[in-house]
Amino acid sequence: MGKITAKDIAKAANVSLSTVDRVLNNRGGVAEAKERRVVEWARKLKIDRALNQRAARTLRIAVLLQRPENPFHAAVQTNFEAAMRDFPQFNLQFRIHHIEPAKPGATAGLIRSLLKMCDGIVIVSAADDDIGAALREFGRQGKPVITLVTDIASSERFAYVGPDNFKAGRIAGDMMGRLLGKGGGDVLVISGMLSMMGHEERESGFRAVLNERYSDCRITDVLESLERAERAGDLVFSALKRNCAIRGIYNASAGASSVVNAVESLGRAGEIVFITHELTDDRRYLLRKGLIDVIIDQGPAFEVRTAIEALAAFFGRKEDPPASLMTPIHIHTIENC
After folding, report:
1. 151 backbone dihedrals φ, ψ, rounded to 5°
2. Of the residues 1, 175, 278, 286, which has the fewest C-beta atoms closer than 10 A?
3. Kind and range of the H or E element at 221?
4. What is the reported pTM?
5. Angle 6-13/32-44 helices, nearest 10 degrees?
């Protein structure tokens, strides 16, 4: 076969020669669907200048997540804000929108307001019928919806990017059973919001392992912090006052520092096994001090990168999608923090 030319790409992509010229030379002014076909065929036909080019049209991606007072969401936001610098070849512009987890109606309204303004959505949110309906409406316009960290089953999303939260909960349960030992004991579970699929899956996995292998470990309560750090501490303080037999705490969400403060204020530090998620700076410090026993981390930087690569593949700006959308789980103790 002879040398591939722009004319070959135009024929394969079913567009005009001038359209191919505009795309390959980054002149803009080409509809998204046509641009995507041209880039895809240029890659298939091995036109070198198309392989690593910066895509001509800036695509606007809305990122919906909690305010950065939550350290994990702060890390997610920071990584999306750095995306234009870190992945310039994709030409994806990420705009952060903060949502309140306890106000699903407002979140659904925000999604609908973004229908004509954005080319895609990445969202970290509780599962809710109104939110799911709004995301379905967004997706039916041919625009990708990515649920991040916690899935939304009714959203008909393009992709879920994040950990296997049921497995993460099972790991937490296994760690709790091993650390409490043969004597077992009462265990308190603090969830952020059970309407968040990720949190519900963590609690289910945690409970399943205790039932299967550590029957002497008894879950006394599953309480919701509503993703508020100070509430997590208050719930732990009240539970420990009511029940001095609690020997383990599994916090599946925000508020690790508040939980530690509650435990210390009651003179129970060193007596209670504390397991939580997300290796943020404040939790790393508590882990090194021996005030947290195990942290199960999912790597927000890697999750953001995976979501960006999935979007780039959807828009034809990356040849292959990520090898996996399920992100790895890491276990941290005082020895490897």
Report:
1. -85, 165
2. 1
3. strand 217-224
4. 0.83
5. 120
